[in-house]
Design brief:
The protein contains three helices and no strands. The protein has 117 residues and is an all-alpha fold. The protein has one domain. The model has no long low-confidence stretch (mean pLDDT 85).
Length: 117
């Protein structure tokens, strides 16, 4: 491989690692927030906030993971099989993102404008 492809491959892995770190840190911070707010908000409200914070962390981490996969597939693994695997991974992650968005907001992303009417 060429040095630039190696560099882009490393960049893809670094971005994916950042996504994993975002998820791990988000889990930790969400748990700390939950423990601190448990008495103030009550168990149900604190739990609901914990789930929303956790979903936000996972959602942000997924965005990094998708970006890393795209970079590596486009620059390093330029095969039809690589593209098909990427398409499947992105499809699964998009479905996860949509369901997490629904979990956080209580509505689908395309329903945002309906509240303003």
């Amino acid at each position: 491989m060429t040095p630039i492809r190696d560099l882009f491959g490393i960049a893809g892995y670094v971005i994916e690692a950042a996504g994993v770190i975002v998820i791990i840190v988000g889990i930790g911070l969400s748990a700390i927030w939950f423990a601190g707010r448990l008495r103030q908000l009550g168990s149900l409200a604190a739990y609901q906030q914990f789930r929303q914070n956790l979903a936000r962390s996972i959602l942000l981490g997924l965005e990094f993971l998708i970006a890393g996969d795209i970079i590596r597939t486009v620059t390093v693994d330029q095969t039809l099989t690589g593209a098909a695997v990427l398409a499947l991974i992105v499809l699964i992650r998009v479905m996860l993102s949509l369901t997490l968005e629904f979990e956080i907001e209580g509505r689908w992303p395309w329903q945002r404008g309906s509240d303003k009417a």
